[in-house]
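hey team, just a heads up i'm posting the complex here instead of the shared drive bc the drive is being weird again. everything in one block, sequence lines first with there labels, then the predicted structure for the whole assembly after. its two chains so it's a bit long, scroll down
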Amino acid sequence: MLEHPLTMWQQMESLGYTRRDFLRFASWLAAAAGIEASGIGQVVHAMETKPRIPVLWLHFQECTCCSESFIRSSHPIVADVLLDKISLDYTETLMAAAGHQAEKSLHDTMKKYKGEYLLLVEGAIPTNDDGVYCCIGGRSAQDILTEVAEGAKAIVCWGSCASNGCIQAASPNPTGATPVHTLISGKPIINVPGCPPIAEVMAGTIVHLLAFDRIPQLDGLGRPKAFFSRRVHDTCYRRPNYDAGLFVESFDDENAKRGYCLYKMGCRGPVTYNACGVMRWNNGVSYPIQSGHGCIGCSEEKFWDYGPFYQHLASFPGFGIETTADKVGVALGIATAAGIATHAISTNIRKRKQIQQEIAGSDTIADDTKGGA
Amino acid sequence: MQHAQISRVYVWQLPVRFYHWINALSVLVLVITGYLIGSPPAVQSGSEASFGYWFGTVRFVHFLAAFLFFFNFVYRIYWGFVGNRYARWQNFIPYRKEQLEEVKEVLKVDIFQRSVKPLESVGHNALAGITYFISFIAFLFQCITGFGMYAAMSKAALPALFAWIVPLMGGDFAVRQWHHAMMWFFVLFSMIHVYLVFYHDYVEARGVTSSMVGGWKFVEKHKL
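-- predicted structure starts here --
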């Protein structure tokens, strides 16, 4: 950890990047963060003047796929500068320090940059049984999070685990895996869900914080609007097939070969907010739908619980696998029709009796009238 | 009994009747298009997407019917405060002792087919009232969840009012799932509702069925 943190530009300069490289990088970052062309100057200015933000990256119940995604960002400088040199003072998977040194580094940063450092959290936090299911250095994840979040300027939740619990929180959630926003309050929290999130989305979120010194515009679920305001469905290149009602019926049929819509194969695009259709993956090479597989909605809360993945409608809770609301509905409909039929029959038997009685009754009345006359 | 004096009572005002039939029509359209959106039929046309738009049209009709349904529903709530005594909101919530008694009485007639004696209420009977109240809650649920999902693809102000349901339920998937499941309430409700109207007309002979067309019901004079 340096005494006087350098600015991003100084850092790049010392690494041998030219001014042109720097400007190109700044423009690319601005574009990735969804900032319009007129805002590039602001990004450049910020990276020239602002010292790098000290960053603490905590890992809890996770698989490190978010880190893996981030270091594979399509732009090499992202890994080189943002990650390697952003002053990442503590991150279990990438730091050189270990054991007591690592803990010291964490606490040094927390003390020195109190209220200034950025906290990035990867992974959910188990809350059952005093949080014994995830302990680092003998302390529970919840304990560490509470302590580190205390002095953080803002918290970025990487991936679905930290944002909404992901697979660890899938029913019945044995460890009580909990996303950050339900445990921490009073701090700006940015959720960047996805399993993992797209590297450029992660970089874009960091850039926004870096350049503008404030959190990006968030939606109702705390996600940056720049990346999560549209559904995968709205930006899907197969969307015209959906509107035309052309669907893949099975993965090996003619329609699949023609590239029709994967809606009936359980594609979660229509209910998933993410930037996959626009940014795509692996340097913009492809994304699940382009590769012929429906979206599984990995950035949505409880996506594991709405199975099976290859069915449009999820199983209806309490009725076992592959029993959809439609199957339950049809069964209830048949039961209702049967009930109505039975009821109608018994009503008719009853009414028949009643009519018979009334006919008999009116006969007597008629007789009476005759008798009276 | 057969010589009872029958009187004609104007029960359903024109706005109530309009509401009923617009509602019936929009529910029918919404259920059919909604079901199609949930499970579109297989079309093996082999054509290019640019030549067709039938699924988009189905969705458009669904959204159109949804707006009709919503405003019609809002209108009916308004009429529950300004309409005649049979249209008032008090009919839908059994808070009085007589209403609760009547609920039990109607259940006996409907389920056990116990008595055929004509019921006390001229307008909705108390059981029907509470059932319609429950259905209003279902209407509200469908409006909130439907517009909540629609808000993401619309810039209009009305759907945006319901966007809060998505984070509340944890995401679009949950909202879609429950919006779809609730469709079956409408199917079952319609089946039972239509049957019971015919049933009551059949055993009571008060002209319940035609009352929703003309507005008049026939009631024994001594009941008035």
